[in-house]
């Protein structure tokens, strides 16, 4: 059975929304915030959640970091509400509808549970991708929607994943044939050391590793032959 929010859940969230509304009205600093000025905080808070998870932080710390991210969402929703666009409830309703729509291996169209569920991750991915394509049938580029400001390494991995899932003809390394690739280490620790060594070598030669990889990702995306 799908869990439903309790009155305590709703009260806590309503209290937070009310607190932010009051701060926007009565605190000059909070009242001066804009979507644009909040961007740096949203990125910073998201990275702090990542740091907590990777450091195996205790639950109290992780809960606090997640609260900081939630604050950013509530603030952005409040700014939109003030200009008469949408509010937090609309944000929650939209993402809930999307999760139901894109997870038809779990939910029926009305949000109730299916009678049976897929047995493999591969089947889930196929159904998820099919649901996304149905939402935007005009979208033909598998790389559309990858944030342009995503860090280069994350953009590279996401681009290769999108290409593979779209059935594009790429080799296992995802690199041009004339590029010599050293053996890939068997562990993430060793891989991290290799990547750090590459960055160090680039630095010694006056090269910007982030910019170089970002350019390589753009070239990879542009040179892919889309299936007809």
Automatic annotation (TrEMBL):
One Gene Ontology term of the molecular function aspect: methyltransferase activity
Keyword Transcription regulation included in the entry's annotation: no
Coiled-coil intervals: none
Keywords: Methyltransferase, Transferase
BP term (GO), one: methylation
Residue span, NTP pyrophosphohydrolase MazG-like domain: 34-107
Keyword Methyltransferase found: yes
Gene3D superfamilies, alphabetized: MazG-like
InterPro entries assigned to the protein according to its UniProt record, in alphabetical order: MazG-like_dom (IPR004518), NTP-PPase_MazG-like_N (IPR048015), NTP_PyrPHydrolase_MazG (IPR011551)
Name listed for the protein in its UniProt record: Uncharacterized protein YabN with tetrapyrrole methylase and pyrophosphatase domain
Organism: Paenarthrobacter histidinolovorans
């Amino acid at each position: 059975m799908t869990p439903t929010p309790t009155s305590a859940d709703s009260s806590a969230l309503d209290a937070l929304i009310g607190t932010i509304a009051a701060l926007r009205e009565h605190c000059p600093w909070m009242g001066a915030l804009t979507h644009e000025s909040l961007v740096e905080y949203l990125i910073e808070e998201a990275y702090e959640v990542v740091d907590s998870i990777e450091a195996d932080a205790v639950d109290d710390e992780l809960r606090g970091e997640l609260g900081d991210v939630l604050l950013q969402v509530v603030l952005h929703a409040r700014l939109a509400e003030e200009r008469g666009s949408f509010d937090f409830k609309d944000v929650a309703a939209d993402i809930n509808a999307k999760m139901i729509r894109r997870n038809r291996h779990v939910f029926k169209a009305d949000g109730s549970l299916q009678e049976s569920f897929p047995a493999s991750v591969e089947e889930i991915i196929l159904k998820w991708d099919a649901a996304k394509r149905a939402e935007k049938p005009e979208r033909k580029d598998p790389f559309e929607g990858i944030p342009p400001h995503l860090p280069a390494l994350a953009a590279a991995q996401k681009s290769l994943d999108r290409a593979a899932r779209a059935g594009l003809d790429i080799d296992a390394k995802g690199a041009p044939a004339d590029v010599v690739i050293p053996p890939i280490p068997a562990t993430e620790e060793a891989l991290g050391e290799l990547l750090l060594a590459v960055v160090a070598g680039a630095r010694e030669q006056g090269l910007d590793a982030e910019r170089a990889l970002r350019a390589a990702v753009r070239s990879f995306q542009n040179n892919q032959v889309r299936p007809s």
